[in-house]
Design a protein that fits this description.
Blueprint (H helix, E strand, L loop, with lengths): L8 H17 L8 H8 L30 H22 L8 E3 L1 H4 L5 E3 L1 H22 L1 E2 L4 H9 L7 H7 L5 E2 L2 H25 L19 H19 L2 E2 L9 E2 L1 H5 L5 H4 L3 E2 L2 E2 L18 H8 L14 E2 L2 E2 L1 E3 L4 E3 L1 E4 L2 E6 L4 E6 L2 E2 L1
Antiparallel strand pairs: 1-2, 3-4, 5-6, 7-8, 9-10, 11-12, 13-14, 14-15, 15-16
Helix pairs in contact: 1-3, 3-5, 5-8, 8-9
Length: about 375
């Protein structure tokens, strides 16, 4: 069947499904295969003989996490094996016409009844494949590489406190961009996922299809509200992919999010944030308060407020007000009320003139 014409809908459906199954069952001892990854992770070599029909015996394989395992190998598995398999599957599924219906016999689908696959099923399949592709690209686009042995030793040493700084010491680019091209590919996957599900939704919700059995995907009347919520979330994601998205509902545009800059590879967190001391940043001052354009309306004051865990808004004083033992004060030089807060055993005040949080000292402001 798979060897038949490239225009045959059943052949294309099976080719697409086979591309996904091959990712799991590929038995070649090759780099970037799932089985090669499992062996590198610490599974025994016999896992290379595993096939899906052996699923019930999977727990019988011995596994001990290898000290030499690098978590970055997951990104390589995704980039060079999983993502190509998803692209191949979607390419086959996309060749199935919107008016074509496929009947999978019980011999093929492994059940007691035949299954009918229509355009709604194909659209849902494509949506799933593209969502998986988008998430896989997103994971592989960033550098999460750590050595398993070093991480375990750090965790098991009672004399060492595991902090963000120590994790960063193991990989100075931890969380940084590994591949900007994968971010672009992730965005394209997600756009296709939303667009194809938009085609599937009205077909799935059609009264003539509700509760229909022997389909790959079907909805019951009790599923309609949940499906509406899911569709609404996808639509919101689609808008965010194409234009700035406001995270706040109070009308303020301060926390506007730009996913375009994110997927363009401009948000490289390790280069944008200050150095770490333990679990804290050594300063609240950054070179780019917009974080690579991710939050285009952020300024230094907003970044400082978030890092120091305070609110930006300065309350209007009524009478004599105190912050612990410190009062609200008015500065003629600043021409504004000064907001005081304690941070890391220091007394900080917000300078409107300098647009920054500053440390108070006995001899004056630093």
């Amino acid at each position: 069947m798979i060897a038949e014409s490239t225009s045959d809908p059943e052949a294309n459906l099976l080719r697409g499904l086979y591309a996904l199954l091959e990712f799991v069952e590929l038995d070649q001892s090759s780099d970037n295969s799932l089985k090669d990854f499992a062996v590198s992770l610490g599974a025994e070599e016999s896992i290379r003989n595993f096939v899906l029909s052996d699923m019930s015996t999977l727990e019988n394989y011995n596994f001990d996490l290898s000290d030499s395992f690098q978590t970055g190998e997951l990104a390589e598995l995704f980039e060079y094996s999983l993502i190509p398999a998803l692209e191949s599957a979607d390419a086959y599924f996309s060749k199935i016409g919107s008016t074509q219906t496929i009947t999978l016999s019980s011999e093929i689908n492994g059940s007691d009844e035949s299954i009918t696959v229509d355009s709604a099923d194909v659209y849902v399949l494509r949506s799933i494949v593209n969502i998986l592709g988008g998430l896989a690209c997103l994971q592989a686009a960033f550098d999460w590489d750590l050595n398993a042995g070093q991480t375990e030793a750090l965790d098991n040493d009672p004399s060492i406190e595991v902090t963000a700084e120590r994790i960063r010491d193991l990989n100075t680019n931890f969380g940084g961009i590994r591949s900007a091209s994968l971010l672009t590919k992730s965005k394209n996957f997600l756009k296709t996922a939303v667009e194809t599900y938009a085609l599937a939704s009205p077909l799935l919700r059609a009264s003539s299809r509700l509760g229909t059995e022997e389909r790959l995907f079907s909805l019951g009347s009790e599923d309609l509200n949940e499906e509406s919520d899911f569709k609404r979330d996808l639509d919101e994601l689609y808008l965010a992919l194409h234009s700035n998205h406001n995270l706040r509902e109070d009308g303020s545009t301060t926390d506007t999010l730009s996913l375009s800059n994110f997927f363009a590879g401009q948000v490289d967190i390790p280069t944008l944030l200050p150095e770490l001391v333990g679990d804290q940043f050594e300063t609240d001052q950054v070179s780019d308060p917009t974080l690579g354009g991710l939050f285009p309306n952020w300024d230094q004051a907003r970044i400082s407020a978030l890092m120091l865990d305070v609110e930006l808004s300065i309350p209007q004083p009524k009478g004599w007000m105190r912050f612990d033992s410190y009062p609200w004060v008015y500065s003629n030089e600043e021409n504004s009320w000064i907001y005081l807060m304690s941070y890391d055993s220091k007394l900080m005040h917000y300078s409107v003139k300098r647009n920054a949080w500053l440390e108070m000292s006995a001899t004056g402001n630093e």
